[in-house]
Amino acid sequence: MPSTASTQLIHSAQEARAAVEAAKQSGDVIGFVPTMGALHEGHLSLVEASLDVCDRTVVSIFVNPTQFGPNEDLDRYPRDLEQDLQRLEKLGCWMVFAPSTEEMYPPGSETLIDVGSVAGTMEGAARPTHFPGVATVVLKLFQIVPADRAFFGQKDYQQTLVVKQLVRDLSVPTEVVVCPTVREADGVAMSSRNAYLSTDERCQALSLWKSLQLAKQLVAEGVTDVTELNRRVQQHFAAFPGVEVDYVAFVEAGTVQPVTTIDRPTVMAVAARVGKTRLIDNQLLNGA
């Protein structure tokens, strides 16, 4: 149930942990939605999912520098804390944890988390420093906000696997809940980075969703050879000259293991640059 009280804004890790632990001791079930802010309907759907099943919901807003590589968009990543707070208060979010970089990474911080092979392909191959940064900040956030459940979006498919591996391997007592991708009316996956796109680039961005639809249609028509599917998908992207494909991957659902034939539940994942903006998307091609 949404709270009628005002949303608390906390910048201190110590204060946030104390508030969460006190709430848990009183018997409340705590939900947690880690974000980098610039909230859109996809983020808010995760908050609503938490509100539906938890007594209190915490949202973190922190643009994590360790998951950005050299020459990526750390400095220009969209930030609008005031608007984010307004949206979260309207929903009934209990607490927003918005730490400074110094709060999360005190001077002398050196530890990075390596979750192994699940982080080594697709996004991990394209952005080698990304998942160590993600895993490290997620573990730190789980330590600061020891929630019962944490909610992540399916759009970041590989990230959900990384977080699940982290939780399993390090015995973190938080349940990871993965929620469906939220899309714009035309199918483009909601992303804070969509704000970078010009009008023309926004039209080009639709190519990612259309590639997933094309593959799903081909599988439904009986095309199961991944080499042929990849050929058709690359042919599709060639019609969008403003789009530079980073990778197209077909992996067994729930893993990052490549498949050669679509004979089991399979996820297609795609990453591409539209102008200067890098976008990702994915979809289950078959199975439940």
Structural notes for this entry:
The chain has 288 residues and is α/β, with parallel strands linked by helices. The chain folds into 2 domains: 8-179, 3-Layer(aba) Sandwich (Rossmann fold), CATH 3.40.50.620; 192-281, 2-Layer Sandwich (Pantoate--beta-alanine Ligase, Chain: A,domain 2), CATH 3.30.1300. Helix content is 37%, strand content 19%. It is built from 9 helices and 9 strands. The chain has helices at 13-25, 41-53, 81-91, 101-104, 123-126, 130-144, 157-169, 199-220, 226-237; strands at 8-10, 30-35, 56-61, 95-97, 149-153, 175-179, 243-252, 266-274, 277-284. Strands 1-4-3-2-5-6 form a 6-stranded parallel β-sheet, sandwiched between helices. Strands 7-8-9 form a 3-stranded antiparallel β-sheet, covered by helices on one side. Strand 5, helix 7 and strand 6 (175-179) form a beta-alpha-beta unit. Helix 6 (130-144) crosses helix 7 (157-169). The radius of gyration is 19 Å and the shape is globular. The two termini are 30 Å apart. The mean pLDDT is 96.
